[in-house]
Predict the structure.
Amino acid sequence: MMESKAFKRFIDKLTKENLWIYIIRALMEGDKTGYEIVKSIKALGISTSTVNVYMVLYKMEREGLIKSVAHNNNKYYENTQMGLTAFNAALAFLGSLANKLGCDFRCGS
């Protein structure tokens, strides 16, 4: 199936430009190093650079969505309540958007 440019832009906006939501989800499994977060995101099939993930981690920490802790000479990241609240709000928004389009997340199948 050939994908339109519009669809490709849509996918980029929901993945590469919103890595924070995937990072919050990865950290729900437990504290992780930056490298482990990169692996988790790539395991979801999201193509991104390691540098991009670290830039997003820095911004997220500055915003208070995550915090870092040092353990055994490694830097681990963990979610904050603010990050979890933002994650849940994002999911609610996606659900309401799908509802406005007249379907649930499975309507295209």
Notes: The chain has a mean pLDDT of 91.
